[in-house]
Amino acid sequence: MIHALHGNLGSPADWDALGLPDLRAVDLWEWQERWPGISLEEFGAAFSEEVAKIDPEPVLLGYSLGGRLALQAMMARPDLWKAAILVSTHPGLTDEDEKASRRESDAKWARRARKDEWGDFLASWNEQGVIRGQSTPEGQMKLETRRESVSRAFESWSLGGQRAIEESREEFPFPILSVAGERDEKFVRLLERFRRLGDRVDMVLVPDCGHRVPMEASERLGEVIRDWLGNRRGDFQSPAPDLPGD
Question: What is the pLDDT of residues 90-101, one digit of tens each?
Answer without folding.
Answer: 999 999 999 999
